[in-house]
Amino acid sequence: MMSRPIRLLAVVLAVSLALATGCKYNTSKSPETAKMNPQFSVAVAPFSVAHESYELLTGYMQEKLTPPKADAVMDLDAIMTESLHVTPESNIIPPAKVKDCLDGTSRPGEASRQAILKFWQTVGQCQDAKFILVPVVSHWKEREGSPAGSTSPAWVILDLYLVNVKTGQLANHFHYDYQQQALTDNFLEVDKFLKRHGQWVRAEDLAREGIVKGLKELGLQ
Question: Which three-class secondary structure state does DSSP give residue 173?
Answer without folding.
Answer: strand
